[in-house]
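@channel sequence for tomorrow's demo:
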Amino acid sequence: MPAWLSNVGADVHHRALTARLLGAALLLAACGGGGDDADGTGGEARGDTTCDGRIEGTEHLTMWFHAGPSGELSTLRKQVAEFNKAQRQVRVELVTLPEHRPYTDLVDSAAASGDLPDLLDIDGPNLYSYAWSGKLKPIDSCVPDSVRSDLLASIRQQGTYAGKLYGIGTFDSGLGLYVRPSALKKAGIRIPRGVDDAWTSAEFTDVLRTLRAAGHETPIDLGLVHAKPGEEWNTYGFAPAVWSAGGDLIEPRTFRTADGFLNGPEAVKALTTMQTWVKEGLVEPGRTDDQAFTEGRSVISWTGHWWYPRYSKAHPGDVAIVPLPDFGRGTVTGMGSWQWGVTSGAADGDAVWRFLAYLLKPDQVHRMSEANGGIPATHSAVKLSSAYGTDGAEHLFIEQLTGGVARPRPRTPAYPAITDAFSRAFAKIMFDEAPVRATLDGAVRVIDKDLADHQYYPPTGR
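structure tokens (generated this afternoon):
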């Protein structure tokens, strides 16, 4: 949802795009882009002409949204209706999409045929593929400094490719460990106070063993029910363990190889530790339900912000959120969620931006966050919810997003191939107890082949 999240209470785990799925659409489009800027914020406007400050006449816009019937969709429909009613110059149509086809399939098909809408909802790290292939326009010229500075740094970072801003989300995501303080205190286990106090991976292994000895048969739920091969949950949820250990999914500066990074000793050690938890029976197995924490089978859950409403309802006053374990280089967490992009065929960039500016108003950001449980994308909207304040129940998520603990998934057009390879490797390691190094070696070969097949995604100056 990661970046790929849809709505609270729904199935938020969307299948990753595969390299084969995107390959045809990408090769039909012109190449573009290049390496990201150092800070990932996009810096100053890069001279794009998407917006010139003028709207001629009345503009009619189409937009696509990823979620079917949900709190998100109903909220967005109301926002569209209210925007259209409040002014006459821009008319927005929220297109109803067929529910039997995966959203990413629809986007790729429309991109290949030139039928994308003016405003497109994009799953977090897939933005880089769309930007590189020319499906999106940069929007630096559209975004005023006042809006840019109000955005969380993570929102700017995830929307930036090749030094240009291509996407803006109205919410971000949070990832951490939900714990039952009563169970931990009864077992004599300390509870981390924040990102500087995370359990080490060795300490966390002892925590799990102590909890099982105290009568909790499977003390941790890793969401393995959602960890099937190819699922994005595997990358969003567990790449942070690799990063925390000092490894990576791909060489992070040039994105030209995964060799020595995904299969390096740091990554191997982190995933071997996690596999040990499974081998020792400390992990809730991938059953047919995801209720281990709510029903009390597990007292720790490695998951995201979308579970807080149900967890807190199931265990009133007995839920806390703490950082993921430190595997050697400090705790690291995931970030990124759905974001909006202006397509290359958009009717008028200024018209699209006028609607986006409406969605980014503090009250509208807060409204959507209330509907889907996402982390508000702007500092002004964060202030509207006590949950993210210093003493708020979900303050850790803001601390992570604004304090440099959260990391984006690799900002490269190769991401679909990277996530698919890592996701499948993770599933083999956790479900089949496959040899960790050999399995990661296989994932590296797949990723490096995709890179070579696409000439390492060369920039063409777009």
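heads up for whoever presents: The longest helix spans residues 436-453.
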